[in-house]
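User:
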Amino acid sequence: MLTNLLIAILYGWASSAIINYLADTLPVSNHECPSLESRRPIHQYYFYNPFKIFRIRKTRIIAVQICAIASYFAALQFSYLGITVAVMDAVIIAFYFLVIVIDFEHHLVLHRVTLVGGIIFLLFGILTHRFLPTLLGMIAGTIFFFIIYLIGQIYSSIKTRRTGLPVDDAIGFGDVTLSLVCGLLIGWPGIIPVLIYGIALGGGISLLYLVFQRIFKKKDVSQSFIAYGPYISLSTMIFWFFTR
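Assistant: Predicted structure:
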C-alpha cells in the first residue's frame, strides 16, 4: 500500500500540473487566442508556494492535485489487473479531470480535447472489449446525446421566441462529442446506463444548486446553464472502475 501511495502522489502531482496548465491555456477567447492572463509557464504549476497568493486559481490547482492523487491511489488498488490497466486508468483519470475542470469553468467541452481522447479511447476500447462493441458504443453514445442536443436546441429556440432574449443552448455540441468518446471507452451496451446516470446526476445536482440560488441568494435562475460534461465524465469513470 505504501508503494501505491508513493506512486499515486508522484503521478497525481505530475498529472495535476499538466491538467491545470492545459485548463488555463486550451480554452480560447472570442478572438481565438488564449487569454493573456492564463498564459503562465508550466513550471509554476509544478513548483509553487501554496502559502502565498497564487493568482492562477490556487484553490482549483490544489483541489485538482488532491483529487488526482486520491483517484489514482484508489485506482491502484486494482493493480492486480496488470500494468496495462494501471496505465489506462492513469490516462482516463487525467483526461476526464481535464474535461471536468474546463467545463465547470468555461462551459466548454473542447473538440481538440475530445479528438485526442477519442483516438486514445478507441485503442482502449478495442483492448478491453474488442472492435464491434467499441464501434457500437460510439454510435449509441453519439445518437443518444445528439437526440438530447436537438431537444435542447428546440427548447432554446422556443424560449428565445417567447422572451425575445437570447438564451444559451441548453446542451452544447461538445457534450455530443464527449458522449462519443465515452462510448468508445465503455462500449455497448454499457454506454446507455452511463449516459442515463450522468444526465440524472447532473440534473439532480443542478436542480439542488438552482433551488439554493433561488431561495437563499434570490437570483433569477431561468437563464442558468447546466454543464453536463462533468457529470457524464464522473458517471463514465465510476462505471469503468466498478464494473470490470
